[in-house]
Design goal:
The complex is a heterodimer of chains A (640) and B (452).
Chain A (H helix, E strand, L loop, with lengths): L6 H23 L3 E10 L5 E11 L14 H10 L1 E10 L4 H4 L4 H6 L4 E8 L3 H19 L12 E2 L12 E6 L6 H9 L15 H5 L3 E11 L3 E12 L8 E2 L2 E2 L4 E2 H5 L12 E8 L1 H10 L10 E3 L5 E4 L10 E6 L12 E4 L12 E8 L5 E10 L3 H4 L7 E10 L3 E12 L2 E3 L1 H4 E7 L8 E10 L4 E10 L15 E3 L3 E8 L14 H7 L3 E5 L3 E3 L9 H24 L2 H14 L2 H14 L8 H28 L1
Chain B lengths: L5 H18 L18 H12 L14 H7 L13 H35 L3 H5 L6 H11 L1 H8 L4 H16 L3 H15 L6 H10 L6 H14 L6 H5 L7 H25 L6 H14 L10 H7 L5 H14 L1 H7 L4 H15 L5 H11 L12 H25 L4 H37 L2
The chains are: A alpha+beta (640), B mainly alpha (452).
């Protein structure tokens, strides 16, 4: 029988109930969420950009580690096991065209990635444990995404940049695999992390043939975790596609841009949202330059005007909040929940007049290339060509300068001579100290770790072009260290060029505080202008792979020749040899011996008292006696 | 018999070097695999100096593997210049270093010549041996060293091997003239710079103990026993037995005292230079460790680079031990057989090291070919000299061609270049074996001449 509740206990229970209610209500506010978004944008070079953005978030509760509703369990376990603070993994095929597709917008700074695999992670661990954790992490990711990320395990493959990549306290590791091929086998595990996979919602647009037909394709996974907001997982897929220009037609003013819609790009229409998603939206972005041109043509820059018309009326049109100048891009928003199987969404654009516009470029176009020929040495050159973009933003005075950060990782077999760093500004050789504000070099160690170069450069605003060059020697590897196709060469990962004074973030007015768009939120966040340079292919000399046995035998033969002949020369006693020869001649037989003796006597009679024959006979006699004694002794002892 | 116009020829060699350095432009000799090795390359030294100036360890980055002393001496001269090729000041230093080395070789040759004349006189063979071949060996040796094309390219290509050579020469000169502190200094420095001269301690102690090269003791004993027999009435035996070399402990004792002094001094200087950027332990690992473990597989004129690039990993340690021991194997047999000729012993050791060291270059060969000239009188009857001479020329012409075919044109492959390395090693083997056996023959000839 339960004892009746005493008044204090009752009071405690009464106090407890509202607090319990409070906790559950907080938990309800912090439930796992999933949002899906798609951004479409026409590109100036007759291509179209599609950017898929999926965000899953998990609240920071301890129970959430064991059970999840929407958030992928594999990722939650990974974050907890490896104490990851931030992680970014990208699989990229193709190169972002900074000249045509823009270098100064959130898309290019956040989602333009170097070819192959790039992985960086910041850990919440003591510095001593980070390298070991990184190794485990690479293996886990390798298994999760069916990619050879485990090659980043080796200490020769990753580096720990301090400020060139991202400011950190030594808890960040960065690795890149430029040659990794990216295909559907990497996309499938990535899609498995989504609650609806590609069965419903925006992800159902991911028609593989069209995605992999594209010019650029970057699949990214970004993780951020903290005690305050839990885990946020951003999965993005950025593709640049060439729409079929069947509907494009020629007119008197030039070629019309191709008109396209989702059906043309992905071979299907959007027939509803993923049911578990909180919001599901499609955006159509109209570039600043287009808005400008539409304004000039006199009509309001909305979804239908003199230049183009969108295939369906947007639910909302957002204008970029921009205080600096009048130009601002605008975004048309479609809510996918308003569409269904019967009335599917098919966002597209139809051009009415030929239009030439351009995307805003980064302050400098950064290119990297190799110089020199032959397989012995070469130089890495990094060139910056001004796009004169900053002249619109800053008033160009004499002492004005632009900061540029260069971050570059070089594998150990490319032995860079850092003292050969040369800087040319507008063709003139400049002193290093004039241009470089800060430099951090971690030289490569043979077979141990790669070289890392972090530089903070300060270019004068009036500069038109700059070039940096570094000499290097090509290393020679052991035959086991060459990859199967050794003559193809080795890749040097892309360098990262950052312009810290330029920010590409774009903010759009908040329409609904409850339904914040994660995509537009990332556009608003830290958007320091970055651009990746090309991957370099360095051909290295190869030894003859079929030769090991020959080389071993030849070398050992030569050394044995040296050893044997020198020992022979030292050991040989010419005088004794002559005596031995005489002895051998004496032993040859009776007749030659007699002849020799006769001849010698005739030619030169031996000196008296030292006859070789007598010495010989006495020695022989001694030997015979010795053998006889031994035999007798042996017989005696064996018998007794 | 001194060489006529010696000074003008020596001066011409120096002027020739200066002309090449000052007006030759950048001949890219500093990056030739035959000339510079990872240990002696001036570009690596410049990189190490740069790293040190950037307050990093000069040894970080597997670039520099030399001594910290060289870094502080030559480092400031490696700064970029607007005129001439990059390392013109270093080259000028090396011209001076080469000249000093040649002068010391000459002085060594003269003391060897004196010792030879004295011993021949005491053996009363001056007429029979001395007059037939008697050239001034010191002059010849120094001219060979000065005019050796390999010494010239090493000097113009500004590798640090002239300094290593100079230290070896200082050691031999100091030991020959029984200057124990100088010999100890040369020994410590040479060992510090390139480790291998450590085995020269045997000839140095013999040189300090017995003095310069003489015919074998046996010859003297034979001579004196016969002399005693012939003029037994002569009471003045002590005068004739004075010439028999006796081991004197005093200079050896001084040498052994000076060794730790110089070693401590060098290590102290190194640790001062490496203060705050590195440690002595790191220095030993990055210099001696790098030499002994053959970490760098870039091609050179030796054979070990290709061997270790191709050999299976499990056998690597075994062969490392074998090849390093191979240098030591011959130390004792040679010392036993040639103990009466310590200078020649030093030459043989130097050439063995030049052949078997892990990163050989033509600078090492220049040294032993120079020293070979010191024994011009004794080795006059050496065989295969024609073959050797043209072999050396052939290898030094073929090696750049094969390297060019393999590295620059991509039409040849590594085996061609390796073959020249093999041929070069064979030639050196022949040279060593022939010189040793003809020296032994020469001693035998002396004994036969003395024997009545």
């Amino acid at each position: 029988m339960a004892p009746p509740l005493s008044p204090p206990a009752l009071r405690r229970l009464i106090l407890l109930v509202p607090s319990l209610l409070l906790i559950t209500s907080v938990a309800a506010a912090n439930v796992e969420e999933f949002t899906e978004e798609l951004l479409l944008r026409p590109l100036p070079d007759r291509k179209a950009l599609a950017h898929f953005h999926f965000r899953s978030s998990a609240p920071p509760s301890a129970a959430a580690i064991r059970h999840h509703h929407l958030f992928p369990k594999a990722i939650a376990q990974l974050v907890h096991q490896f104490h990851i603070r931030e992680l970014e993994l990208s699989f990229t095929q193709g190169r972002w065209n900074y000249e045509q597709w823009g270098g100064y917008d959130p898309m290019s700074t956040n989602y333009a990635k170097p070819p192959g695999v790039e992985l960086w992670a910041a850990f919440d661990l003591p510095l001593g444990e980070i390298d070991a954790t990184w190794k485990n992490l690479t293996h886990t990711l390798s298994g999760l995404f069916c990619a050879s990320i485990n090659f980043l395990e080796s200490s020769t493959a990753f580096s720990s940049p301090r400020w060139g990549f991202k400011l950190n306290e030594g808890n960040l590791r960065y690795g890149a695999l430029p040659r990794e091929a990216v295909c559907t086998e990497n996309l499938t595990p990535w899609l498995k992390l989504l609650p609806c996979r590609d069965k419903a919602g925006i992800a159902s647009l991911l028609y593989r043939p069209s995605v992999y037909k594209g010019y650029y394709h970057s699949q990214k996974l970004k993780l951020a975790s903290s005690k305050s907001f839990g885990i946020i997982l951003d999965q993005t897929l950025t593709v640049v596609l060439q729409p079929d220009s069947v509907r494009g037609m020629h007119s008197a003013d030039g070629q019309l841009q191709p008109s396209w819609s989702m059906k043309d790009l992905f071979n299907r229409k959007l027939s509803g949202k993923c049911l578990v998603s909180k919001t599901s939206r499609v955006f159509f972005e109209i570039e600043k330059d287009i808005v400008d041109k539409v304004d000039k043509s006199g009509t309001e820059a909305s979804w239908t005007n003199d230049l183009f018309v969108l295939s369906s009326a947007p639910d909302r049109v957002l204008k970029e909040i921009n205080n600096m100048d009048g130009h601002s891009s605008s975004i048309c928003e479609y809510d996918v929940s308003n569409y269904n199987e019967d009335a599917p969404l098919d966002v597209g654009v139809t051009w009415k007049l030929p239009l030439i516009w351009s995307c805003t470029p980064a302050p400098y176009h950064a290119n990297r290339f190799l110089m020199g020929s032959g397989n012995e040495r070469g130089s890495i050159a990094l060139s910056f060509i001004s796009t004169n973009m900053h002249k619109q933003l800053f008033d160009v005075s004499n002492d004005c300068s632009i900061k540029t950060v260069v971050f570059q990782v070089v594998p150990w077999y490319v032995k860079v001579y850092y003292h050969t760093l040369e800087i040319f500004i507008d063709g003139n050789n400049k002193a290093i100290s004039e241009v470089i504000d800060k430099i951090n070099v971690t030289p490569s160690e043979d077979k141990l770790f790669p070289g890392t170069l972090e530089m903070l450069l300060r270019f004068p605003c009036s500069m038109q072009s700059a070039a940096l060059s570094l000499d290097f020697d090509k290393g020679f590897l052991h035959i086991d260290e060459y990859p199967p196709d050794a003559n193809q060469g080795f890749d040097i990962p892309s360098a990262l060029v950052t312009f810290p004074e330029f920010n590409s973030s774009r903010s759009y007015p908040e329409t609904d505080s409850l339904f914040v768009s994660p995509l537009l939120q990332t556009f608003k966040e830290d958007g320091v202008v970055k651009s990746y340079t090309e991957v370099l292919l360095v051909p290295l000399t190869t030894p003859d792979f079929s030769m090991p046995y020959n080389v071993i035998t030849f070398t050992c033969t030569v050394l044995a020749l040296y050893f044997g002949s020198l020992l022979n020369a030292l050991r040989r006693r010419t005088g004794e040899e002559e005596r031995e020869l005489k002895k051998a001649a004496a032993k040859r037989g009776l007749i030659p011996l007699l002849i020799a003796k006769l001849r010698r006597r005739k030619v030169d009679p031996p000196p008296p008292g030292s006859s070789p024959a007598s010495v010989l006979s006495s020695k022989l006699l001694l030997k015979v006696v010795f053998v006889a004694v031994v035999a007798v002794a042996f017989h005696h002892f064996s018998n007794s | 018999m001194a060489i006529r116009h010696y000074w003008s020829m020596a001066a011409a060699a120096v002027v020739f070097r200066l002309v090449l350095v000052l007006f030759g432009g950048d001949l890219h000799l500093a990056s030739r695999p035959e000339v510079s090795t990872p240990l002696t390359s001036i570009r690596r030294l410049a990189e190490g100096y740069w790293l040190k100036q950037a307050s990093m360890s000069p040894y970080s980055g597997s670039m520099y593997h030399g001594s910290p002393l060289l870094l502080s001496v030559l480092g400031p001269f490696t700064k970029k210049r607007s005129i001439g090729h990059a390392h013109i000041y270093c080259s000028l230093i090396f011209v001076a270093v080469d000249f000093i080395a040649a002068m010391l070789i000459r002085a060594t040759g003269q003391s060897l010549q004196m010792a030879r004349n004295r011993s021949l006189k005491s053996l009363e063979l001056t007429e029979t041996v001395g007059n037939s071949v008697n050239v001034s060996a010191g002059d010849i040796a120094s001219l060979i060293y000065l005019w050796n094309p390999w010494a010239i390219v090493t000097c113009v290509g500004s590798c640090t091997s002239p300094i290593e050579n100079l230290m070896v020469v200082i050691m031999i000169y100091g030991a020959c003239s029984r200057l124990a502190p100088l010999a100890a200094f040369g020994y410590v420095m040479a060992t510090h710079l390139s480790l291998y001269p450590a085995i020269l301690i045997v000839p140095i102690i013999l040189l300090l103990g017995f003095g310069p090269d003489t015919p074998p003791t046996k010859v003297f004993h034979l001579k004196f026993s016969s002399a005693r027999k012939s003029d037994i009435l002569d009471d003045d035996k002590s005068t004739s037995s004075r010439d028999v070399p006796q081991f004197s402990w005093k200079p050896v004792f001084y040498f052994i005292l000076w060794l730790p002094f110089w070693s401590c001094y060098v290590l102290l200087l190194s640790s001062i230079i490496l203060n705050k950027v590195g440690s002595l332990q790191e220095m030993f690992i990055k210099t001696y460790g790098f030499i002994l473990t053959v970490k760098d597989l870039s091609p050179n004129i030796g054979v070990l680079w290709y061997f270790f690039a191709e050999v299976f990993d499990i056998f690597r340690s075994f062969f490392l031990i074998v090849f390093n021991m191979n240098i030591l194997f011959m130390v004792l047999p040679l010392a036993i057989r040639l103990k009466h000729r310590p200078c020649f012993l030093a030459f043989v050791y130097t050439s063995i090291v030049a052949m078997l060291k892990s990163y050989p270059s033509v600078g090492d060969s220049a040294l032993y070919l120079g020293l070979l000239g010191l024994f011009a009188n004794e080795l006059a009857e050496m065989q295969f000299t024609f073959f050797l001479f043209f072999g050396y020329i052939g290898v030094s012409l073929l090696s750049p061609v094969m390297h060019n075919l393999w590295i620059w044109r991509g039409t040849g492959n590594a085996n061609f270049y390796f073959a020249t390395g093999l041929a070069y090693t064979c030639l050196q083997t022949v040279l060593i074996v022939e010189s040793v056996s003809s020296m032994i023959k020469h001693d035998r000839k002396l004994r036969l001449l003395v024997t009545p």
